[in-house]
Amino acid sequence: MNRNKDIKISFDATNFSQIFIHTSGAYLSKPITPNNNKYLANYKTSDELKALVLEINNTSSKSKREKLIKDFKAILEIDSTINAIPLTFNDNIEKLKGYIVFESTSAIENYDLSLLDFISYNFDVFNDYLLFFINFFDYFIDKLDDNDIKYIELDTLYPVKEIVEVAKKYYEKEKNTLIYYQSILKKCIHFIYCIDNPFDLSDLTLKQRFFLYNQLYQDTFKEFSHDFHTTDLLEYQYNNFPLKKEEIQLEDIYTLISIIKEIDSTGRHLSNLHQFVTDNIFTSFYITLFNIVAINKLHIKICGNCKRYFLTSKENVSYCDRVIAENQTCKDIGNKEYQKRKQENDDTYHKYRTLGARKQTRVTRNPEIDMYKKDLEQFREIGKQMYKDVCDGKISNEEFAKWVDEQDK
């Protein structure tokens, strides 16, 4: 792989969207051939299969090529419906049996900022280091020795175990450096967003806090805060436009008009982007921080469940939206645990449940008395809604307690 690297960041404050272009790896459970057999020529495998790939690439006959590709897929059990996916905190990388492919990745980030993933890693845990190695490969491009950098190429499939072995060679050497840069960013973020901050900064905006931090801790970011250049993209564009520019033809004009009207009926979502370019991954994280402190309504917090950093527009939110297990997010799990603890310690809720059980017993013992049945149904319907309103903050616990007392008759 060429050691040259360009990390590009474009930030659109209007729609709060950051385009982050860099080199990263993705995971495939088995070899695939998306985008017209993109990875076929670069699949690292046996000499026999390499010969088959060579024959595929040199065949001019379309029918023969299709047959050879079919044979190749049959040998490797290729599934063309599977896509390469980014690895997350849920993945135990050393136990994965598939493949890693490194590509130039263009990610549109909103609340899922790469900066927050970086400061959430626990580099004392090897799996977190592996995640960084794969997801932020830019950092290692000029760290690998000549043999390793020549071995790893873009758009090429590598068994996971081989990438793990390469990453292991640099773990002890790079771990403390990563922890150091992580601590620099964490310290600043904790100050700005008042995470365990002893100072009262409530009267200052986020930008003012950022300015204050740089006055108090001068030269903290000097090493990488100026390591970039900028380009202005003098054209308007959509961050979420579904068609690639190079694929558009003149005859597509009415399709384009339809798409534009559908995704932006008011014409307010077009943006012209100011792009930052750097070869330093830590500079890219600093640029992200610099951009988001300008948005006073956004807050960086530590999730009460997974203990990782997340971004939210609601100051009273305690849990992130990361999927933890079985399609449940930290927010799902955290809210259930909160409600469970609240119910266990809430005398009013306990009295409400006890009263409901008593009314149910009365109905069971007197099935012929409709008044008891109607009273139970009304109690459950109103009580359920009132308790939901308490949890949502629409009414106070005192109001709920007063209503429960009135039902105890």
SSE order and pairing:
Elements: E1 7-12, E2 17-28, H1 34-37, H2 47-58, H3 62-76, E3 99-109, H4 114-120, H5 126-135, H6 146-151, E4 157-159, H7 160-168, H8 171-192, H9 206-216, E5 229-232, H10 253-263, E6 274-278, H11 281-292, E7 299-302, E8 309-312, E9 323-325, E10 328-329, H12 330-345, H13 347-365, H14 370-391, H15 397-407
Antiparallel strand pairs: 1-2, 1-6, 2-3, 3-4, 5-6, 7-8, 9-10
Tell me about this structure.
By secondary structure, this protein is of the alpha+beta class. The protein contains 15 helices and 10 strands. The strands form 3 sheets. The protein has a 6-stranded antiparallel β-sheet with strand order 4-3-2-1-6-5. Strands 7-8 form a two-stranded antiparallel sheet. The chain has a two-stranded antiparallel ribbon with strand order 9-10. A hairpin with a 2-residue loop joins strand 9 (323-325) and strand 10. Helix 2 packs antiparallel against helix 3 (62-76), helix 13 runs antiparallel to helix 14 (370-391) and helix 13 (347-365) runs parallel beside helix 15. The termini are far apart. Mean pLDDT is 84; it is low at 33-46 and 77-81.
What does this entry show, briefly?
The chain has 409 residues and is α+β, with helices and mostly antiparallel strands.
Task: Work out the number of β strands.
Answer: 10
Secondary structure tally, helices = 15
**How widely separated are the two ends?**
79 Å
Q: Secondary-structure element order, as H and E?
A: EEHHHEHHHEHHHEHEHEEEEHHHH
Q: What kind of sheet is the major sheet? A: 6 strands, antiparallel
Low-confidence stretches: 33-46, 77-81
What would you call the shape?
A: globular
Helix content: 40-55%
Overall mean pLDDT stands at 84
The fraction of residues assigned to DSSP E strands is: 5-15%
> Structural class, from secondary structure content?
alpha+beta
C-alpha-based Rg, rounded: 28 Å
Please list the strands of the largest sheet in the order they lie side by side: 4-3-2-1-6-5
